[in-house]
Amino acid sequence: MSKQFDLVVIGAGPGGYIAAIRASQLGLNVACIDEWKNVDGSPAPGGTCTNVGCIPSKALLQSSEHFDLANHHFDEHGIVVSNVSLNLKKLISRKNSVVKQNNEGILYLFKKNKVSFFHGLASFVEKNKDYITIKVSSLNEELLAKNVIVATGSSAREYPGLKFDEKTVLSNDGALNIENVPKTLGVIGAGVIGLEMGSVWRRLGSDVTILEAMPDFLMAADSQISKEALKVLTKQGLNIKVGVDIIEVKNIGKSVSIKYKDKDASVKDLLVDKIIISIGRVPRTDGLNASAVGLNIDERGFIVVDDNCKTNLSNVWAVGDVVRGPMLAHKAEEEGVAVAERIVGQHGHVNFNTIPSVIYTSPEIAWVGKNEQQLKQEGRQYKAGSFPFLANGRARALGDTTGFVKIIADAVTDEVLGVHIIGPMASELISEAVTIMEFKGAAEDIARICHAHPTLSESMKEAALAVDKRSLNY
After folding, report:
1. Which of 37, 99, 223, 313 is most buried by a 10 A CB count?
2. pTM (2 decimals)?
3. Domain named Pyridine nucleotide-disulphide oxidoreductase dimerisation: which ranges (predicted)?
4. Residue positions in the annotated binding site for FAD?
5. What is the per-residue pLDDT across 231-250, written as a single tens digit (0 to 9) for each?
6. Which residues are annotated as a binding site?
7. What end-to-end distance do the CA atoms of the chain give, in Å?
8. pLDDT-derived band at 2, boundaries 50, 70, 90
9. Where a domain ends, among 332, 350, 368?
């Protein structure tokens, strides 16, 4: 007899596993299916984020930053280190252990919250009045679900005519597992993955060239932030070229040949040992057998949903990278919680206007809300204030004074419309901005809040004061 569940979640990435846990907390009988596995065949829940995305990349960024600090910055603190060497195998092994800890943590959370976990590929079989039938590749029996949440995530987009071999032509997966530091490394795409992975291997010794098709650097960010980021990352040693028109990319065995036109239309040739392709991601619906139940998928491969993440089928929902909106783990989590609550009749809500974006380079880059370019285009009247970390006592003590905090507020109401940060721990500092904006707070509200001294967060307070041209420490 088939097993019956109130809810079956397909995919155990950030959107899926969080949705399953929240639904179980709300009293539903829940199952979660995921096919990701470790090299030994054991389950590896957590999706792209845990296995080849957010978590392992941050582990490598941390390790590579330690290496860079030991080589170039410890002497500033009176710490004399000589003959610093790199054990890349151990560095990668540490990254793998961090990933495994997260895999095991999710399995523990499933057990703690009484979520039934099935390891295998899920596919739709049929839909009738009461249940949707789902096949799991590892089971002899099928699952019957009253409700389904599809959270199958996304895959790296291949460059046209160039297949990933994860040895020479790398996706984010291969970029995390390079066995030897390449002498030369090419990166196509100056987005989050390109900049983070480029930073990792640059610190470890690669000569890194990043090629970006867009005419300006980091066009999604505030222009002041992107200009500062380009200046700092270039100074660090990343060779970043924007406005590039790639003519041809060839995998020639142990190296990659790239022919491109640069911004002034000059044709250039670049030969690199390895290349990372970071030109976006595509929704993962292969193997789902969506047609068996009539699930609507658009021409780009995304599952079509309404504002509440409901599909064209009454009891099927979809969240995360497989639907519209930013491909961010925290966006997927918020959607997962909201959908679980909607299924039981509550009013789950996701505010797309306050979803922060973060790039974990050094310095970190983070923003939430509108930037100046967008507000000018909208014709909205605003005022802005900024404060440099150079004038922050804690930043000086850390020895990292790069960057600034910028706050943009409505010219009349003072409501915070956007916050943009480049500098130390920007990923943590942005949370205060998200909170203020969720409550439609004003720059004055931030300026009136007591911030502990000495902290980096004081730069947020000072930037808020600067909106009204009354910064106290700059």
Report:
1. 99
2. 0.97
3. 355-464
4. 58, 152-154, 321, 327-330
5. 999 999 999 999 999 999 99
6. 58, 152-154, 189-196, 212, 280, 321, 327-330
7. 71
8. confident
9. 350
